[in-house]
Design brief:
The protein has 147 residues and is α+β, with helices and mostly antiparallel strands. It has a domain of 98 residues: Roll (Pnp Oxidase, Chain A). It is built from four helices and seven strands; from the N terminus they run αββββαββααβ. The protein has a seven-stranded antiparallel beta sheet with strand order 2-1-5-6-7-4-3, sandwiched between helices. Strand 3 and strand 4 form a beta hairpin.
Length: 147
C-alpha cells in the first residue's frame, strides 16, 4: 500500500511539474493584455499572443466557444491594449476572411513555435479540441478621436 501511495505521489508531482512547465512555455512568448472598461475601472479580459499583419496587431482563438474574451469583444469591441510598456485604446474588429485567418494562424505558428508546445499540452490535458474552421481573429485598430 505504501508503495502504491509513493507511486501515485510521484505521478502527481510529475503532472504538476509538466503543467507548470507548460504554463511557463505559454508565457514565454510575447503576451499582450486586453482590458475592458466596466465603468468602475478596467477589468482584465485576457492575456493573449499577438501577431502583426499589415501594420496592425491581431489576436485570435482556435476555440472561441471556450473563451470568455471572444464573447466580451463581440459585445463591447472597445478595449485597452497593453503591449510591452505601452497601453492604448483599441477597437476590436472581427475578421470575416478565412484565407487571411489561415495566414494569421501561420504567423502565430512561426512566432510562437516553442510556446505552442506548452499550449498544446495544456489543451490536451483539458480535452479542448481545436478546429481551425472555428477560429476567430480580431484586428485591434486604434480608437478613433470621436470615441
Amino acid at each position: 500500500m505504501r508503495r502504491l501511495l509513493k507511486i501515485a505521489g510521484m505521478l502527481l508531482a510529475v503532472v504538476i511539474l509538466l503543467h507548470g512547465a507548460a504554463f511557463l512555455l505559454v508565457e514565454s512568448g510575447e503576451v499582450v493584455v486586453l482590458r475592458t472598461d466596466t465603468g468602475r475601472g478596467h477589468r482584465l479580459l485576457a492575456r493573449l499572443w499577438v501577431v502583426d499583419h499589415d501594420g496592425r496587431p491581431w489576436v485570435g482563438s482556435a476555440n472561441p466557444s471556450k473563451t470568455k474574451w471572444v464573447a466580451a469583444l463581440r459585445a463591447n469591441p472597445r478595449i485597452e491594449l497593453t503591449r510591452g510598456d505601452s497601453t492604448d485604446c483599441r477597437t476590436a474588429v472581427l475578421l470575416e476572411n478565412q484565407a487571411l485567418g489561415a495566414n494569421l494562424t501561420q504567423l502565430v505558428n512561426a512566432k510562437y513555435r516553442i510556446p505552442l508546445y506548452g499550449s498544446r499540452f495544456l489543451k490536451f490535458t483539458q480535452r479542448l479540441r481545436l478546429d481551425d474552421a472555428e477560429a476567430v481573429w480580431f484586428r485591434l485598430d486604434p480608437c478613433s478621436a470621436s470615441e
